[in-house]
């Protein structure tokens, strides 16, 4: 009996102890619930700070590639919307794209965020990763400085190699950054990145050979890719095969056109990305091409006669003492004929002419003053003269592969009657980037071309120097140089690039210059530099308002043709690896990084975000369970 009483008392004490423990647990976790405990992976301990989710969605043209569930941009937008639906309804956001507009700096509700995401469309604007990150940080600092807000930064992109640039980035060791990569099903694309003509001069009534470069950026060979070339009423189809990860240069001869203005396009019929399948171009055929010959102290009349053998060239002569910059207007080529002295002012004018796209051909005097000619040669990127020496050699080497001689000689001909040189100028050509076009038997260079399409003969035309003036090669060379001197008028331009487009003439009447086609009427920025006028299509305004296509530049009448294309940077399918991106970011100070490749096997629900984990709900649950256990024990545990 005594033993039974002891056991009963022990059970009663155990019951009371368990009830006490339940009460203590309920009380402790109730207090913890009111204190709102949380875990913040960013080590920011101020729980009063609101968390803002900043989402960037890449809407560049590389996101037109097909993913597992449609185009990559559609996949990214859908993932962003699913993410928003996972958050509490009172969560707020910043939604941005490549536009980076002032509107995108607003902090908005979940409903407005879903609306903004639906409104994101493809844009030709290209941004680097560092630009987007710095913009986000500036926005976050401006919005969160006074309100003590925290920001979670998410990037949704395919992360092209060219896009992921970290130069000038401002790292934040405390910032949270999540990288969501969307990859295409097949990393392949085919596109045209450039076109050109062998001759910058397009003669009215003659055909023009158009060259273009096609890039196969895929891991498979392309067989019989269909290409269509159109120019006004002319159309031609051709089929090309391109090995994997390589390019092919091919050409089409556009026949003579009855109209001076020619607008065209090249179209690839591939099944990859479609936005870069078209490449637009245009040019104007001319009845005449203007040349200015500046006659120096030792000029030769046969120089003008050499150019005049072609009726296509309109030759104007001026004495070096009477020349002025107004004579340079609309000229394609300036020839310095027998120049011995040249003023610094004229040097500056010629240098500006060359910088604007014109060509210069220097035929120096045998007594040229080095202190006056060398500064000009240096500005034109041609070798400087260091001295003069006597010789008696024939020129034997021509650079047949240079475009200057393309179409002049069918093949390398050793039987050509070459000129003989008795005196030549010595140069510092080893320190120059200029191309040697002709050299003597002892390999001494005698004719150079700069990369800016200017030329110089390093001898004189007097009989005591050479017989070049009497040689049949001289007029051929003059005509070919004049044909290659087409100014800086390009057959195409890329929208948004920092490149000025020259205008030949602008009427003085009131009203703006307009860039027009069937769908667009845009007023470009007009810039004047001396006697030269340009339009500027760089910057965001042009990229937002212009699509690729053929345009006319118009005021009262048509001033010029302009063909615009989207920059082919977005055509690349070379993507960054997530682990490589994380390593690069960690090396410059980023710490709180998450990454995820999105495909058909992944989803938003599987992604762990760098968000604050709050535990007050768990504390309330434990408090309720402890109280419930206490009630059960008190009611059903009998002594």
List keywords for this structure.
single chain; 24% helix; 639 residues; alpha/beta; 5-stranded parallel sheet; 33 strands; 9-stranded mixed sheet
Question: Can you offer a commentary on this structure?
Answer:
β26 and β27 (521-522) form a beta hairpin. Helix content is 24%, strand content 31%. The chain has 639 residues and is α/β, with parallel strands linked by helices. It has 11 helices and 33 strands. A 9-stranded mixed beta sheet has the order 16-15-17-18-23-22-21-19-20, sandwiched between helices. The protein has a 5-stranded parallel beta sheet with strand order 5-2-6-7-32. It has a 5-stranded mixed beta sheet with strand order 24-31-30-26-27, with no helix packed on it. It is elongated.
Overall mean pLDDT stands at: 84
Unreliable segments of 5+ consecutive residues:
42-47
Percentage of residues assigned to helices: 10-25%
N-to-C terminal Cα separation, in Å? Answer: 16 Å
Structural class: alpha/beta
Radius of gyration over C-alpha positions, nearest whole angstrom: 37 Å
Shape category? elongated
**Overall strand count:** 33
């Amino acid at each position: 009996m005594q033993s039974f009483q002891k056991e009963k008392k022990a059970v009663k004490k155990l019951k009371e102890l368990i009830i006490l423990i339940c009460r203590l647990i309920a009380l402790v976790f109730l207090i913890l619930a009111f204190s709102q405990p949380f875990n913040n992976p960013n080590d920011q301990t101020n729980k009063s700070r609101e968390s803002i989710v900043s989402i960037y969605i890449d809407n560049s043209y590389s996101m037109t590639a097909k993913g597992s569930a449609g185009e990559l941009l559609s996949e990214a937008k859908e993932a962003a919307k699913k993410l928003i639906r996972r958050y509490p309804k009172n969560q707020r956001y910043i939604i941005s794209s490549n536009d980076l507009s002032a509107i995108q700096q607003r902090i908005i509700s979940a409903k407005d965020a879903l609306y903004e995401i639906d409104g994101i469309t493809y844009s030709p604007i290209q941004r680097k990763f560092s630009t987007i990150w710095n913009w986000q940080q500036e926005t976050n600092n401006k919005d969160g400085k006074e309100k003590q807000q925290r920001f979670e930064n998410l990037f949704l992109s395919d992360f092209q190699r060219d896009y992921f640039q970290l130069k000038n980035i401002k790292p934040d060791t405390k910032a949270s950054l999540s990288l969501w990569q969307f990859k295409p099903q097949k990393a392949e694309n085919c596109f045209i990145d450039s076109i050109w003509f062998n001759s910058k001069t397009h003669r009215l009534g003659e055909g023009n050979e158009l060259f273009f470069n096609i890039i196969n950026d895929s891991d498979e060979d392309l067989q019989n890719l269909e290409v269509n070339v159109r120019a006004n009423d002319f159309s031609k189809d051709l089929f090309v095969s391109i090995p994997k990860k390589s390019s092919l240069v091919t050409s089409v001869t556009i026949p003579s056109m009855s109209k001076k203005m020619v607008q065209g396009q090249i179209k690839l019929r591939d099944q990859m990305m479609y936005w870069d399948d078209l490449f637009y171009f245009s040019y104007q055929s001319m009845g005449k091409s203007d040349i200015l010959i500046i006659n120096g102290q030792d000029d030769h009349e046969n120089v003008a006669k050499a150019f005049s053998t072609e009726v296509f060239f309109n030759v104007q002569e001026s004495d070096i003492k009477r020349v002025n910059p107004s004579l340079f207007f609309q000229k394609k080529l300036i020839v310095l004929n027998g120049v011995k002295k040249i003023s610094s002012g004229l040097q500056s004018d010629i240098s500006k002419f060359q910088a604007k796209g014109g060509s210069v051909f220097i035929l120096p005097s045998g007594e040229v003053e080095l202190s006056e000619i060398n500064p000009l040669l240096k500005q034109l990127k041609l070798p400087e003269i260091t001295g003069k020496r006597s010789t008696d050699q024939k020129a034997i080497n021509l650079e047949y592969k240079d475009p200057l001689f393309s179409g002049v000689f069918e093949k390398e001909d050793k039987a050509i009657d070459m000129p003989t040189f008795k005196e030549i100028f010595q140069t510092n050509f080893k320190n120059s980037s200029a191309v040697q076009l002709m050299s003597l038997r002892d390999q001494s260079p005698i004719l150079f071309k700069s990369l800016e399409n200017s030329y110089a003969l390093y001898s004189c035309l007097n009989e005591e120097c050479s017989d070049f003036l009497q040689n049949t090669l001289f007029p051929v060379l003059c005509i070919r140089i004049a044909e290659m001197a087409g100014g800086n008028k390009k057959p195409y331009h890329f929208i948004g690039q920092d490149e000025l487009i020259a205008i030949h003439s602008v009427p003085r009447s009131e009203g703006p210059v307009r860039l027009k086609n069937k769908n667009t009427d845009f007023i470009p920025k007009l810039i004047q530099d001396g006697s030269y006028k340009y339009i500027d299509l760089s910057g965001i305004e042009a990229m937002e308002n212009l699509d690729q296509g053929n345009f006319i530049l118009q005021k009262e009448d048509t001033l010029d043709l302009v063909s615009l294309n989207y920059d082919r940077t977005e055509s690349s399918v070379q993507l960054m690896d997530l682990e490589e991106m994380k390593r690069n970011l960690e090396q410059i100070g980023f710490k709180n990084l998450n990454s995820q490749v999105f495909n058909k096997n992944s989803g938003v629900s599987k992604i762990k975000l760098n968000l604050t984990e709050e535990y007050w709900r768990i504390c309330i649950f434990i408090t309720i369970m402890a109280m419930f256990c206490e009630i059960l024990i008190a009611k059903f545990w009998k002594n």
